[in-house]
Amino acid sequence: DSQESNSWEEHELDSSDEDEIDLGKESNHPMSKEQKELFETAAWQKVLFFYTYMHAPLLKGGGELYKVFRAAWNDLVFRQGNSDFAKFNEAVAWKCLKFQQSHRSTWSRAAFNWIDHNYRLGRKTRNGNEVSAAYLLEGSRFLVDPQYWDESWSAQAKWFTNPWLGAFLADTLWKSRQAGRRFIRNTPHMIKKLVNGPLICYACTMLKEALEKKKDSAHKFNQDEGRAFFNLLMDVWDLAAETPLEREIETEDFGLISNCAQALQMAIVRRMKSTMAIQEAQEYQQQKLAKRKGLGSSAREESAQTRKGPGWTIPLTYGTPPLTWRQFTSM
């Protein structure tokens, strides 16, 4: 109720002062004991993962972090009965920012290593064009199905059609010990919910970043440029969601597909699931081989993954995510 909400409301931020919150260095904002304990809980780590990859990546500045994380954090504080010392402030915002930056850097490196094998740089296209980082970046060709690479096409009209996008998500985010597997277990039945527009656009942004590094080894990530590209991708994705298919398609795994974004998501998720199935089969064979050699299983589940959080919906200034607490923390 309103009384409950007001009792845990921090100072309000208007548009004039949101961007003025200077996080500075970690030493300037030490976390309290209560904040540290809450930050390390399985419930909050899952929220961080979900918001970072599937809701609001590439945040910068204290104001944006307050908008995205504060309501969910303070709701968790209230529900778990923590004291005022655990409430959201600059110290928590700084840690959230560092979480996002660390995971962005890790994903970018994974994308850099993934590109050579999957895009097969150096080979020739049907028309004799060499597949290089520069060639793939031209017109964002890396987002397009290879069958169209040598043709004249409207770039944005064919974005997200590259069939490797699903494999990229599986190979760089959901393999053993990677972020997706570390924070969420039993994912196959939830992949449709998790692989949403923001995650797909963030993945494409990381692919672009990796290709820029392939093109120029001195390239450094530029936050503003990365955000601008991500926002452009989201605009194109939203346009695809508003574009109806010529004919609706009824599917067993995705239900009724009525617009272009749904069709693209379905294709990406199906490729992702098939790649994950291959991964699991390979891991199983590796574990059997290790067992025969007396090495035991190399894979282990994090104990935190078995912990479950309470069941309530996460409130957000930027709109309510598509998952409830009960759905998300029970994965």
Describe the structure.
- The structure is a single chain.
- The chain is mainly alpha-helical and 331 residues long.
- It is 53% helix and 4% strand.
- The chain has 13 helices and two strands.
- The protein has helices at 2-7, 33-39, 42-54, 61-79, 90-119, 133-137, 165-173, 179-183, 191-194, 197-215, 223-241, 260-292, 325-329; strands at residues 244-251, 255-259.
- A two-stranded antiparallel sheet has the order 1-2.
- Strand 1 (244-251) and strand 2 (255-259) form a beta hairpin.
- Helix 3 packs antiparallel against helix 4 (61-79), helix 5 (90-119) crosses helix 10 and helix 7 crosses helix 12.
Briefly summarize what is shown:
With 331 residues, this protein is mainly alpha-helical.
**What is the number of helices?**
13
Tally of strands: 2
Strand residues, percent:
under 5%
Give the structural class. mainly alpha
Low-confidence stretches: 1-20, 297-331
What's the main sheet like?
Answer: 2 strands, antiparallel
The whole-number mean of residue pLDDT values reads 77
Helix-strand sequence: HHHHHHHHHHHEEHH
What is Rg?
21 Å
Overall, the morphology is globular
List keywords for this structure.
mainly alpha, 331 residues, single chain, disordered N terminus, two-stranded antiparallel ribbon, 53% helix, 13 helices
